[in-house]
Amino acid sequence: MTINPFEIISLSAYFLLMMAIGFYAYRKSTSDVSEYMLGGRKLHPAVGALSAGASDMSGWMLMGLPGAIFLGGFSAAWIAVGLTIGAYLNYRFVAPRLRLYTEMADDSITIPDYFENRFKDTSHALRLMSALVIIIFFTLYTSAGIVAGGKLFEASFGLNYQLGLFITAGVVLAYTVIGGFLAVSLTDFVQGCIMFIALILVPVVALMAMGGFDAAKTSVLTGFTSGENITATAQEYFSWTQGITVMGFISLMAWGLGYFGQPHIIVRFMAIRTVKDVALARWIGMSWMVVTVIGAVLVGYIGLAYVQANGLQDQLSDPETIFILLSQTLFHPLISGFLLAAILAAIMSTISSQLLVSSSSLTEDLYKTFLRREASQSELVLIGRLATVLVSLVAIFLAFDRSSNILSLVSNAWAGFGAAFGPVILLSLYWKGLTRDGALAGMVTGAVTVLLWLYLPITIGGASLSSVLYEIVPGFIMATLAAVGVSLWGRSVKKPVAKGFAEMEVAIAEQE
């Protein structure tokens, strides 16, 4: 494969911009651990909103969803509907309270920190359990993103897969280690803007090349007539309900439940300047998400029409690379380089967020709590940087074998975080009766239920449990029941502690 120099120029400019942002953030917000891990709670709502969106979507937005639409039709878009609803509810019900309550609870700068301070957990059990969950799952999650970066460089430029791993991880690691949370958030903002432009530009230009929606639909229908399309019938492709069972629909919509427990997303809410700014962040974030999701769906649909009309089936070995094919076919290499940078932006924004959350747990929740409680701020910042390097090296090691199936763990990690943390986060913000033991029981029950649902050798009609119902549904339900049940039982033993809950309720009422 020939590497086009114009694409290299565009990607090099993108990499230099990321590094420049890292150095800017280094000068602005790395004097203490609060600034390094949370930006000193001075994040602009626009930066917070796009940072949350970009770190959330990853390569799924530009590769996974278009590929699913290309292959399966519009019924595959229900997962995007569920995620959009979940994102809105997260902004509406979690963001304002979490922003305020984490500051009131001894200025908690990590999720485990918040759990411990919220329940006055002197045993550190909550902190340890939640930190371990974050470190283990995010190391695998990060590895999945690095794998995607390696495959992108391999598919687009014909580079060695392992070299692609080091390029992807190296750039992310550089600006994350240098600039910390502010660098990650600012780069996420720029990356979110790039993704936004790309997901408008590619489907619009492809549609113009096709001659409009009518021509695109005719091309897709022609594919069904000739038997070249994979989906069985045109009716199935254009239907939003064809082949979807009640349990399948619940599973797709339930992806939205995962938002309440994703540390790399909700930590953005903790960093926004004020509670009043959350409403503006919600408007910006949801507008960005709706436009980009629609754009991703159109990339898959119009991409199918374009491939069919121009006989490009042989050039598309993997439907998930339809965005890459359209970018390199329809645009000048200088522009296609920018569009390929959009995919890198989606991948890198998630990797950097996960690296920072993992390193913050290693630093604040393990090193400072169990090893060096008297550590200075400069020492903690240094340990945070070293922890970021350590997590990235482990992630690269896990991704080094190209045949490894780490990417399949992404959906499992989403369910694990959503079930383990989601119910506890919601209950801790809205129910003062939640106890330390209840929170711990909910966290453990949610994670264990997800794992059992995935790996128990039980089938229903020959299908595994997870293929019948997404594991986050039973995990979320069981975690909620465990947290509430154990808390109610504990209230007869001793009065639950809810540090700062009454003050938070008053402050929220004043802000709203």
TrEMBL record:
Q: Which molecular function term from Gene Ontology is one that the record holds?
A: L-proline transmembrane transporter activity
- Name the keywords, alphabetized: Amino-acid transport, Cell inner membrane, Cell membrane, Ion transport, Membrane, Sodium, Sodium transport, Symport, Transmembrane, Transmembrane helix, Transport
Q: Give the family, as the similarity comment puts it.
A: Belongs to the sodium:solute symporter (SSF) (TC 2.A.21) family.
The reactions it catalyses are:
L-proline(in) + Na(+)(in) = L-proline(out) + Na(+)(out)
For this entry, list what GO says about its biological process.
proline transport
Q: Name one GO cellular component term.
A: plasma membrane
- Mainly resides where? membrane
Q: Where in the cell is it found?
A: Cell inner membrane; Cell membrane
Q: Which PANTHER family match?
A: SODIUM/PROLINE SYMPORTER-RELATED, SODIUM_PROLINE SYMPORTER
Question: How does the protein associate with the membrane?
Answer: Multi-pass membrane protein
What is the annotated role of this protein in its UniProt record?
Catalyzes the sodium-dependent uptake of extracellular L-proline.
| Originating species | Litorimonas taeanensis
Q: Which residues cross the membrane?
A: 6-26, 69-91, 128-149, 161-186, 193-213, 237-260, 280-302, 322-347, 380-400, 406-431, 438-456, 468-489
Q: What is this protein called in UniProt? A: Sodium/proline symporter
Which InterPro entries did the record assign?
Na/Glc_symporter_sf, Na/Pro_symporter, Na/solute_symporter, Na/solute_symporter_CS, Sodium:Solute_Symporter
Q: Name one Pfam family in it.
A: SSF
Task: Show the NCBIfam families listed in the entry.
Answer: Na_Pro_sym, sss
